[in-house]
Amino acid sequence: MTEPTDADRYPTLNDAGRAVLTRMTEHPAAPLYRNRSGNRLRAEDLPGLAAFEAETLTAPIGWRPGTPPAWIAPYLAQTYAQVPHFRARGTAPRDLAEVPTTARGDLARDIAAFVPDDVPVDRLINFRTTGTTGHPLLIASHPVVAARYLAFHKRALARFGITLRAGPGDVGVVLLGHQQRCFTYVSVTPTMGEAGLAKINLHPDDWRDPADRARYLDAMDAEVIAGDPISFASLLALPVRIRPRALLSVAMMLTDGLRDRLEARFGCPVLDLYSMNEVGPIAVADRAAGGRVLLQPNLYVEIVDAAGRALPPGERGEVCVTGGFNFCLPLVRYRTGDTARLAMAGDTPMLVDFSGRRPVRFRTAQGSWVNNVDISHALAGLTAAQFALHQAADGACVLALSAGALDDAPAARAALRRVLGDVPVRVEPIESEDKVLQYTSDLAGSTAG
Fold it and tell me: pTM of this prediction?
């Protein structure tokens, strides 16, 4: 396969976009960008994206807990007709409750079976996610799908009175990571006048001089900074002078304490987004409303019990979604693994008493910390369907592997030793057949914030 060119990565690139790419990569304090990526959007994609954004910003959610919207029936009929996994079941049921639930493990076994027949394969893209369940997963997507995320981020920002202004010549967004190994790149956003986007790693190994991290962030002066609680905790330790208009926290749960510290330091709202690679942005936390307000007009949310039965409104159970905006991966009763109950914030449904993925870091034998994402990378070669790692108060670890995968124990210990050093690791089987909490620790300081 030939290496993509800049024309492939940025088909609409203009002089302003070219200049901001140069600025982000050639600044004296720039990090060591380890990868190359791009938006791959064509000029003919942009009018449709503008229309999608306009609709997303104004459309009501349009349903109440326990009452599926009118679009569910035609959506089921189309999905059962075009998606191999569902077509194999026969005729689409009339009632959504009759559809068995699906989960991450189903997608991991055969993602191709969940891609509709009519999706053009010439522009199909995929990316790998390790997630929190132990199921490595390829997500089927498309450049237009990736670009649609921005509409939901704008909807979330609008709830807090923020309208994005970045345009030609500006750096619109900097995405933060803090991992031993991190995908880093620069790109531009055609729907915002080719404003710049940079994904950077705050780990010192990705910089010529660790002090360059603050210099670079100040020089880029991005309108929005996005990251997870671990990378934001690292950001707080840097002597930056930036004043972004908002911080977006994604991928992990954000504690109120860390959010308060970030808002006090940077003088802007910190939006805690509930987002999944399979689903995209689902909800944004709103303390005034008392929960996480849903963002997608074409996503229906149920709360289900362990058997997949929809619970009455107000009861707490697992968040289960149908619909979405990724036309490459239509979801039907997809179990997220997170728990909540449904309530209303005015005329919009919201998730209350939410419990989801929690950021955990692990202490090495040398006394430093590593991100749980680094653990996922280290254990990516496991054959186990699930694994869970717990670090005790004395620093020793217990790695639990799913049944039939204990033969992986020697390789797993060796992989953890490369990340954690000479930390004692005991391997034991996972006793439960249900989803496990993947990363836990008894050590003080193991959770950001």
Answer: 0.84
